[in-house]
Design goal:
The chain is mainly alpha-helical. The chain has 2 domains: about 70 residues, lambda repressor-like DNA-binding domains (434 Repressor (Amino-terminal Domain), Orthogonal Bundle); about 45 residues. It has 8 helices and no strands. α6 packs across α7. The termini are far apart. About 20% of the residues are buried. This is Helix-turn-helix transcriptional regulator. It comes from Levilactobacillus brevis. InterPro entries: Cro/C1-type_HTH, Lambda_DNA-bd_dom_sf. Pfam families: HTH_3.
Length: about 140
Amino acid sequence: MSTFDNIKKFSKKRGWNLRQTAEKAGLSPNAIYRYNQGVEPKYPTLKAIADALGVKVSDLSDEYKDATKIPAEESNPTKTDHIDVEDIVDNAAMLTSREHALSDEDRAAIKAMLTGYLNSKEGQDRLKKYGGYGDNGKNGDD
C-alpha cells in the first residue's frame, strides 16, 4: 500500500477527509493530494501527519519500517540544548489550525501550564527518565 493510501486509510478511521488531516498536521489543505501523484513526503512532514493521526511513521510509509532510515536528528530528538516552551506552543500543529487559531490568552495559558508542569517534580522526573535532561534543563550531554 502506498504512503498516500495509508494516510487515506488512517484518516478515514478517524472520520477525517484528507484536507482535515492535512490541516491538523499543520500542512496546506491540499498537501496530501500530492502524495497520490508519486511525490513522497519528507520525514518531518510524514511525522507531523502520523502525529496528527495518532499512528507511527512506519504505519504510513514502508520506507521508515527500518529504523536506520529515520534521519539521525529525528531518531534522537533529545539532542537539544534546552526545552523551549515558547517553541512547543508556537509549533504544535495540533494546537492551531487555520480555522481556529489560538488567542493570545489561550497561548499564554498553555505556555503557563507547560512551564508549570515541566518545572514540577513529576515533569522534571519524566524529563530525566524519558528526555535525557538533567537538573539544569539541558540534555545529559552538556
